[in-house]
Amino acid sequence: MKSKILTMLCLAYLLPLSALSQDLQTTVTSEFRVGYSSNTYLNPFFSEWDRTYSSGYGLSATFGQLFWDKNRHKFELNGGYVFEPFFSDQSTWHGHLAYARYIGKISSKLQAGLNIGTSGFQSDFDRNLHWVHPYITWFPSSFTSIHFKAGSNFREYVGFQDSLNINNRLDSYALEMESWIGFRWQLKAGIYGNLENLPAIQNGISTSFSLGHLFVNGSRITSELQFINYNSEFTTTIDQGGGPGGPFGPPGSTTETQSINDQIWRVKLEGSYPVSSSVSAFISAERSLYQSSSISDGIADIQVSGGIRFSLTPNLNASRKQIVDPIWTKEADQYTVSIKYRGNGNLYLVGDFNNWEKPGIPLREESKNTYKTNLKMEPGVYEYRVLVINGSDEKWLKFSNSTSTVKDGFGGTNALKIVE
User: Fold this and answer.
1) How far apart are CA 40 and CA 58, in angstroms?
2) Nearest to 197, CA basis, from 158, 229, 239
3) Which single residue of 88, 95, 125, 216 could bond 160 by disulfide (Cβ 3.0 to 4.6 Å)?
4) Strands 279-292, 253-274: parallel, antiparallel or unpaired by DSSP?
5) Residue among 18, 32, 46, 108 nearest 356 (CA)
6) Is the pTM of this model over 0.85?
7) How many beta carbons lie within 10 A of that of residue 275, not counting itself?
């Protein structure tokens, strides 16, 4: 019931935006994957510790994303369905995921927002998760962002391990950093934990570090290292026999407190290749090592998988979006971008070089259907888009398949310009 209510709240959160179709974007992504894991903990969606099922699996997932932005406000709605059969006698894992996100731009370097969502999956047992996470993002430079969030997570298990039902709440925090280094290298790092463990973060902390390389043709390879550490204590009473009883235990007993340290190391390597503007192939391999002070030997597991992703961006606007192919040339100490466009309205360049402030840098029509502008750009990686304003109507132009692009994380696609 909670899952249905939160799903309805997520939908109601952005339902009024449908009336603003000129600013609405949508993306539909489908993924088909096959793989093998020796522990379902390494499975992309299952993520429950169980070494009983060392099995191959298939996975199909379809997600839709609606994104709307206006001035300093951005809204995003995501939802999808996952179907994952195992190539063994384990029950199929299937369910839904939905969340809504609001982003408010405080300044050119500061954003704040709220993420609220829900998921529900079924197999031998039911697992429902709900979360509310306020967050803030700081951009110290055009190529670096620091993201902090803290909020509540509500977890419910039904029929889990001997028909056990579990309901609990976890208040968590996350501090994440992302930066582009050397124009083509993407660095990500994060620290995650429970608020109740502060300031003793060593009692429950997860850290991650990843380094990815973006190639000119859009291919990407990423390596990731994750470390999880937990400390726990429990008390045992040992009966030593004989002697009178005392106020702290039975006759002749002693109380001992034991500490256990659990650690998990995970290493992952993933690569993707764009077959076309809407299709990409990917492959990943992962290895984990579990160590505990309560056992003498570590436990190692692996996961390998590969598949294909399809991404479509339907046009919800009544007017047809034209496809453009920006051409960059360097003249002396500045760059010139040239765009062919047939249609009404004025063209503007919006991106990292103007802190994404609308309407943007105007492009002038120098010849029939050819628009240009000049920019002085320091070495770096710049993301940008082309905006058309015709009266009170605004629309983003779509880029051609030959244009280097990246996903903007909000349902759209940004063009990429690398200045070396």
Assistant:
1) 13
2) 229
3) 125
4) antiparallel
5) 108
6) no
7) 12
Note the pLDDT tens digit of each residue in 147-200.
999 999 999 999 877 667 889 999 999 999 998 786 678 899 999 999 988 877
Both structure tokens of 273: 């290749």
List residues bridging with 141 in a β-sheet.
144
User: What is the distance between the alpha carbons of residues 63 and 96, in angstroms, rounded to a whole number?
Assistant: 9
Beta strands 73-84 and 55-70: pairing type? Answer: antiparallel
Amino acid making up residue 226: Q
Does residue 236 sit in helix, strand or coil? strand
Residues 6+ apart with CB under 8 A from 130: 2, 3, 6, 117, 118, 119, 153, 154
Q: Are 341 and 326 in contact (CB under 8 A)?
A: no
The letter for the amino acid at 188 is K
Domains with residue ranges and CATH for the chain: 2-312 (2.40.160.40), 323-419 (2.60.40.10)
> What is the rounded CA–CA span in Å between residue 101 and residue 171?
19
Q: What is the mean pLDDT of residues 37-42?
A: 89
- Residue 420, helix vs strand vs coil: coil
Rg (the chain; Cα; Å) = 26
Question: Within a 10 A sphere around the Cβ of 277, how many other Cβ atoms?
Answer: 17
Q: Tell which wins on pLDDT, 55 or 265.
A: 265
Distance between CA atoms of residues 296 and 299, nearest Å: 10
Q: How far is CA 346 from CA 197, 342, 350, 382, 406, in A?
A: 55, 11, 13, 22, 25
pLDDT tens readout for residues 312-328: 766 555 444 577 888 88
* Sequential DSSP letters for 371-398: EEEEE---SEEEEEEEEEEETTEEEEPE
pLDDT tops 60 at residue 222 = yes
The per-residue pLDDT for range 225-255, each reduced to its tens digit, is 999 998 877 666 655 555 454 444 455 556 6
Residue 377 CA from chain centroid, whole number: 30
Cis peptide before 359 (omega within 30 of 0): yes
Rounded to whole angstroms, how far apart are CA atoms 26 and 386? 17
Quote the CA–CA distance of 69 and 25 in Å, as a whole number. 9
Q: Which two tokens stand for residue 179?
A: 């930066």
Pairing label, strands 24-37, 253-274: unpaired
Residue range 89-105: mean pLDDT, rounded: 90
CA distance 309 to 412: 16
